[in-house]
Amino acid sequence: MLKQARTITYYTLLEALRNRLMWLLAVVVVVGIGLSGFLNELAVTESGQIQVALQAAFFRLAAVFLLATFVVTSMVREFNDKGLELVLALPLARAGYLLGKLGGYCALALVPALLFGGLLALYAPPMQAALWTLSLCFELWIIAAVSLLCVFTFSQIMAALSAVMAFYLLTRSITALELMAHDTLNVETLSKRVINFVVDAVSALLPHFDQFTRTDWLVYGSGSWQVLPPLFAQCAIYLSLLTAAAMFDLYRKNI
């Protein structure tokens, strides 16, 4: 099964590299550099920090959106072209197919992470840029697994992509939601307790993307290698859970 998964990983990555995704990444690089350079000229103070912060935020969002869009659209196209039925008609385990697809998309995630991280190393300390790049890889791997799960669940581009973006926005803002929910200035009521419980439960279930790929590492050099093990642990846990959920959804389908 592992050999079959490696073969699917190779051809999934080859399909992505031959696609127009590389052209889109080039456009993102040009737009990001141009936009940050323009705003750099408008800034009165700390122009360099503003440029790095804008580039980092723009590149992170672009990497997440492009990867999620590619995973969803390529999988839905494969469903519509009956490619999944053709592949599974061969002596191939569904687990091998899923792991191969996930491996290909995780390998693809390295391309924008390394590209954008390398560009940011020109404006920020190289060690902080390397830390930012590794953290972005962890973040993109989780997004790839979420995208696969949403495709198997919804089987439509708009629904799957909307679910992925909603998941990403929620994980990015969950800490802010917790702070607002536990505001001590408001009167303690039953509805407030219920809201606090719901927010805490959601926070316990979701990864905290606000701890990943932080812009202040690049701007202020505040990152250290000690932050990577907790981020890697979150990535490994959620990658395993999401893969198991996607595998369950795939096995229960009648294809």
Quick structural gist:
This protein is mostly helical. The chain has helices at residues 2-18, 21-42, 47-80, 83-88, 94-120, 126-154, 157-181, 190-205, 215-220, 228-251. The longest helix has 34 residues, at 47-80.
- Return the average pLDDT rounded to an integer: 85
Strand portion: under 5%
Helix content: over 70%
Number of helices: 10
Basic shape: globular
SS-derived structural category: mainly alpha
Distance linking N and C termini: 19 Å
Count of individual beta strands: 0
Order of helices and strands: HHHHHHHHHH
Runs in which pLDDT lies below 50 for 5 or more consecutive residues are none
Biggest sheet statistics: none
Q: Compute the gyration radius: what is it?
A: 20 Å
Overall description:
The chain contains ten helices and no strands. The protein has 255 residues and is mostly helical. It is globular and about 60 Å long. Helices cover 81% and strands 0% of the residues. Helix 3 (47-80) packs parallel to helix 6 (126-154), helix 5 runs antiparallel to helix 10 and helix 6 packs parallel to helix 10 (228-251).
